[in-house]
Specification:
It contains 9 helices and 7 strands; from the N terminus they run αβαβαβααβαβαβαβα. Helices cover about 45% and strands about 15% of the residues. Strand 4, helix 6 and strand 5 form a beta-alpha-beta unit. It is globular and about 45 Å long. The chain is α/β, with parallel strands linked by helices. It has a 7-stranded parallel β-sheet with strand order 1-2-3-4-5-6-7.
């Protein structure tokens, strides 16, 4: 099974966590030391109760880290009050279980001002990570977005760069720009410094 192979690679290479679909958390929990899963994936526009239910189930199944997609419809409508309230509720739930929450903002389709709004809310709420991308948008992580986020987030909030990271050189540049962690489907090739055509998914 592909998930089993990914978990084995995570153990072998010391990856921080394996990010897998919610329905496979229970299985993967026995295969890898740390499991991440997604909430509201990939567009974030599920109603708040649905996101809360997803998070509760993921926690029950044993997920260590929950990557929650920001509500992109609310974001584009400028409804920052809704976004902050949703993030407060999800963060409160996840932190009550002493687990990690990452908020995915899809930086590749946002303006700089929208990215800054997201950073401000993340700082007020106290999430653990702000993550650049789901990998579904046309543009994923960028050095410019990571640098902008690092300049406007407190040191207590880390940055996860993801989406379109396929080479060692690009990975290195993102880390230098301020990324604390990388999300890659080509992780093994990147560590080995090999070129890859692996597509993010």
């Amino acid at each position: 099974m592909e998930i089993k192979k990914i978990c084995e690679e995570a153990v072998q290479y010391g990856f921080a966590a394996v990010c897998i679909p919610p329905s496979l958390v229970t299985f993967a929990r026995t295969q890898a030391p740390r499991i991440a899963t997604v909430i509201g994936f990939p567009f974030g526009y599920s109603v708040r109760k649905a996101k809360m239910a997803e998070a509760e189930q993921a926690l029950l199944d044993g997920a260590d880290e929950l990557d929650m997609v920001i509500n992109l419809v609310a974001l584009r409508a400028g409804d920052w009050v809704y976004i902050e309230k949703e993030l407060q509720q999800l963060t409160g739930l996840i932190h009550s279980h002493k687990k990690i929450i990452k908020v995915i903002i899809e930086s590749g389709i946002l303006t700089d001002q929208e990215i800054l709004h997201c950073c401000d809310i993340a700082a007020r709420v106290g999430v653990d990570f702000v993550k650049t991308s789901t990998g579904y948008a046309e543009k994923g992580a960028s050095i410019e977005a990571v640098r902008l986020m690092r300049q406007h987030l407190p040191d207590s909030i880390k940055i996860k760069a993801s989406g379109g990271i396929r080479t060692y050189e690009f990975a290195r540049q993102l880390i230098e720009a301020g990324a604390d962690r990388l999300g890659c489907s080509a992780s093994v090739d990147i560590i080995k410094g090999q070129p890859t055509t692996t597509k993010e998914y």
